[in-house]
Specification:
With 481 residues, this protein is an alpha/beta fold. Helices cover 42% and strands 13% of the residues. The chain has 15 helices and 11 strands.
């Protein structure tokens, strides 16, 4: 008898994608959670039954996760009616038996016939019944399940969620780039103040073979729930907290935020109403370089990240291109002060259409509080925006594109038209403008237009116009009153 081939992450993700077609009309805001919940429940049950076969003794004390009879997949599958209630009882029983799983799945209400008709739920249970998620049937055990989960969430973001996707998930290729640039080492503490679904933190842990400690905070409740599921499926330990990092940081020690060896992050771009009204009296003194305008929290996140770094710490941060040159409020002054502190090590331009659902240019900023002597007073600029694989929904960084960026940064090397080391004096002469096109001119006899810069500047102008309109409306209402 031929041995059964083990499922790859792509094959498991494919099964998840197939399940979407069982909904008459798939609405990710309503339906994604049901697929995720069934996937997790099936994985927990399958792995438990596999372990039970080895132990031979159905004793709760022998298992890290014990699945009671009513929560086991076979029990759920035998039900012929009131399936939503059956699933609710299964999840409650599972979480009550395992306090460390509290809240993992109980936020999903299967007993909601308007969103989850029973005939669709029956079809979904039949579909998941065909997928074995025991370790013995998976190519790489927990890693296979975790990667399949990330691929599925990414697929939904790219195919269904459109513009909202940029707030929900960092594409896997960018996570790989951030993780490699972070250069994590065994024993380090890694932090993400805008953890999203925790995919960036997990990528860093995988880069370090899991020998790091992870911390993260997330403001979006759905993202936070998905992050807990993500680390559980990957079997990665992480301290994750829900809440607003800028207004109420979760990781604090006395009068300051906790400090970490590495910070990696993809904060929500240009977040409005981020908390400038209370930042000037911030009890943790995070905004020493100035308080950014309430219309844009990019430099607020950057300052929080810098405050969260140890004296020899390193940060790798995804930001919109406009953060390099925008001067709304006192952003130019904040940028100048950060540069004068000499913590910025590299500015890496990314291709357009690299994020889910939005086409705005992106940039990676690498901060290093303990630069090597030969890098002090200098910033490396990398034009990584030309090397990519074009896609219909978004563009992708190939492995060779990532490797080239990482190698250039590690060597702090120059290559004509691709990378250049610039001294801070030259940046000061450019009014601390960090636009990559100023330092890496394209070799041509005609002046080239940097489309990324134009697009980013248009985004800035739109924001400033909106702010002005709001002020004018307020003045008009005051005069009328």
């Amino acid at each position: 008898m031929m041995p059964q081939e083990k499922l790859t992450a792509q094959e498991v993700a494919g099964k998840l994608k197939e399940a979407i077609r069982l909904f008459p009309t798939f609405n990710p805001a309503q339906h994604k959670k049901y697929l995720v919940g069934l996937f997790v429940l099936k994985r927990i049950s399958d792995k438990f039954m596999e372990q039970l076969e080895v132990e031979g003794d159905d004793d709760p004390n022998l298992f890290e996760v014990y699945v009671p009879e009513e929560a086991r997949w076979e029990t759920v599958r035998r039900a012929t009616q009131n399936l939503g209630e059956v699933l609710r009882k299964a999840i409650d029983s599972l979480e009550n038996q395992n306090p460390h799983l509290k809240g993992l799945l109980s936020w999903i209400d299967y007993n909601n016939p308007q969103e989850m008709p029973e005939n669709v739920l029956i079809a979904l249970l039949q579909h998941f019944d065909t997928i074995s998620l025991k370790d013995e049937n998976l190519e790489n055990g927990a890693k296979t399940v975790g990667e399949a989960f990330i691929e599925f969430i990414a697929y939904v973001a790219e195919e269904h969620e459109r513009r909202e996707a940029s707030k929900r998930l960092t594409p896997p290729d960018l996570n790989k780039l951030l993780a490699k640039l972070a250069e994590p080492k065994a024993g380090q503490r890694i932090y993400d103040p805008a953890a999203g679904t925790a995919s960036t933190l997990i990528a860093v842990a995988q880069e370090a073979d899991g020998r790091v400690t992870l911390f993260g905070q997330e403001i979006d409740p759905e993202n936070f729930r998905l992050s807990k599921i993500n680390v559980f499926l990957h079997e990665v330990d992480a301290s994750l907290e829900y809440g607003d990092t800028l207004r109420s940081p979760a990781f604090v020690e006395g009068s300051q935020v906790q400090q970490f060896d590495i910070v990696v992050s993809h904060p929500e771009f240009s977040r409005k109403d981020w908390g400038s009204d209370v930042a000037s009296n911030d009890p943790f003194n995070r905004f020493e370089f100035g308080v950014p305008p309430n219309s844009n929290g990019d430099w607020a996140f950057i300052q929080h990240i810098l405050a969260s770094l140890k004296e020899d710490g390193k940060a790798v941060v995804l930001m919109p291109h406009g953060v390099l040159f925008r001067s709304t409020g006192n952003e130019a002054e904040i940028r100048r002060k950060v540069l004068e502190r000499d913590w910025l090590e590299a500015v890496i331009g990314l291709p357009e259409k690299i994020f889910y659902g939005v086409g705005i240019p992106g940039v990676v900023l690498v901060f290093n509080k303990s630069k090597p002597e030969e890098r002090k007073g200098k910033v490396l600029f990398v034009n990584g925006g030309k090397d990519y694989e074009a896609g219909t929904k978004r563009n992708h960084l190939r492995d060779e594109d990532i490797d080239r960026i990482v190698k250039t940064c590690c060597q702090f090397g120059e290559a004509e038209g691709y990378s250049k080391v610039v001294i801070l004096d030259e940046i000061a002469q450019n009014s601390y403008n960090l636009n990559i096109a100023r330092y890496l001119p394209i070799a041509t006899n005609e002046e080239e237009i940097d489309l990324n810069e134009v697009q980013a500047m248009l985004e800035v102008i739109k924001d400033e116009r909106k702010n002005l309109e709001e002020v004018l409306q307020l003045v008009w209402e005051t005069l009328k009153g």
